[in-house]
Design goal:
With 409 residues, the protein is mainly α. It has helices at residues 21-31, 51-58, 82-85, 95-104, 109-113, 116-134, 142-147, 149-159, 166-177, 186-207, 213-223, 234-265, 267-275, 280-291, 323-327, 361-378, and strands spanning 34-38, 44-48, 63-64, 139-141, 301-302, 306-308, 311-313, 319-321, 383-384, 406-408. Helix 6 runs antiparallel to helix 8. The longest helix is centred in the middle third of the chain and has 32 residues, at 234-265. The radius of gyration is 21 Å and the shape is globular.
Length: 409
């Protein structure tokens, strides 16, 4: 196992990478594009950083998401009970194909576009609250006041989660994404609480179905699909609800936060976007390429020995594909470390590639577009409050995001 101190101290994936991910990735792409590392839980893994290697690996059918193909002692990611673990992030075809087909119809671009007006109303309401609390001028943490409550409201409305449980879910998610080493039991407690929450939520929806996605999925589970082919097990149903709620909140809050930060740190780009807001949909692609919410794709396990780049990875070992490193690869994106809303950012891998491409990508794009449009319109003097060097990032490899974004307006 490599212990190159200049790349990853003691070979550990978390050392240095959390504070300065792109500097570490620049070095790795040039010197060790397929690099043996120690994973977040102390187990070994292979880190892949070049665009071409990552893109090819994302569609390689020999790289499985199913943890049953992992060697003992390797990095496997989240440790969840079966009732939350039977989700798309742990599945290969044909189960992956079956479940994605069932839920995918709710996240088509056409269906998601119907949410534009409700999302804008939520954004305006949150900004109204800012105006009420701070007057025409004020200061706030934009993550807590805006970037976090917007996506949790949208995804909870879509699924049909009651308002009184939304704050709890945010707290549980934060614990799972960035576990506190000083509180080793907190993650287990959060999992137990979420399991109880989803169990009760499904029971409530069965008693009183509503016009929401979760009620629709329960109907699929209880009534069966065409000739019984499209059917969910109870664990699959609960795991799917967990994944949609978890990912639908977590990824979007981080994307909105890093997008706003990028604009505030690049006033020329912010001015160009204010001058022509019609560029926002294309701008979202550069936001997600430049500093997307996921440093790594979900871990994979070779079904047999697999060659990535010029390295052969043995069957069953853990492969971590760095989406963030791939998106900053100058071989694919010239001057890749430059934030440029005029660049053609299509082809980025921030939302995946192939059959595991992010199911909620249309919704994440739309929420980010609307969140920024509302900010540009209603807070024309938005600025960072304090030294950018003092910003604190979430100590997590699962989701890159700011703990807080202090601003004045």
């Amino acid at each position: 196992m490599s212990t190159d101190q200049d790349l990853l101290a003691d070979g550990r994936l978390t050392d240095g990478l959390l504070a300065h991910p792109y500097a570490v990735y620049d070095r790795l792409r040039d010197t060790a594009p397929v690099h043996r590392v120690t994973g977040p839980d102390g187990s070994p893994a292979w880190l892949v950083t070049r665009y071409d290697d990552v893109r090819e690996a994302l569609v390689n059918p020999l790289l499985s998401l199913d943890k049953r193909h992992a060697l003992p002692g390797g990095y496997k990611g989240f440790a969840l009970p079966p009732a939350l673990d039977a989700n798309l992030l742990n599945m290969d075809p044909p189960d992956h194909t079956r479940i994605r087909r069932l839920v995918g119809r709710a996240f088509t671009t056409r269906r998601v576009e119907q949410l534009r007006a409700p999302i804008r109303r939520t954004a305006d309401h949150l900004l109204d609250v800012l105006g009420t609390s701070g007057g025409p001028h004020g200061s706030t943490d934009l993550i807590a006041a805006y970037a976090a409550p917007l996506p949790i409201t949208v995804i909870c409305d879509l699924l049909g989660v009651p308002h009184e449980h939304r704050r709890d879910f945010r707290a549980w998610t934060d614990v799972l994404v960035a576990p506190d080493p000083a509180r080793p039991q907190a993650a287990k407690e959060a999992v137990v609480a979420m399991l109880g929450f989803f169990t009760q939520l499904l029971a409530d929806k069965r008693k009183e179905p509503a016009d929401d996605l979760l009620s629709d999925l329960i109907a699929v589970r209880d009534e069966g699909g065409r000739e019984g082919s499209d059917r969910l097990s109870e664990d699959e149903l609960m795991s799917l609800a967990f994944l949609i709620l978890f990912a639908g909140y977590e990824n979007t809050v981080q994307l909105i936060g890093t997008a706003v930060l990028a604009l505030l740190q690049h006033p020329d780009q912010l001015a160009a976007l204010r001058a022509d807001p019609s560029r926002l949909p294309a701008a979202v692609e550069e936001f997600v390429r430049y500093d997307g919410p996921a440093l790594l794709a979900i871990r994979r396990f070779p079904l047999e020995d697999v060659t990535i780049g010029d390295v052969t990875v043995p069957a069953g070992e853990t492969v971590l594909l760095s989406l963030a490193a791939a998106n900053r690869d100058p071989r694919r994106f010239p001057d890749a470390d430059r934030f440029d809303l005029g660049r053609d950012a299509t082809g980025h891998l921030a939302l995946g590639h192939g059959i595991h491409y992010c199911l909620g990508a249309p919704l994440a794009r739309l929420e980010t577009e609307i969140a920024l449009a509302a900010l540009l319109e209603r807070l024309p003097d938005l600025k960072l409050d304090g030294d950018p060097g003092d910003l604190r990032w979430r100590p997590s490899l699962r989701a890159r995001g700011l703990l807080a974004l202090p601003v004045t307006y």
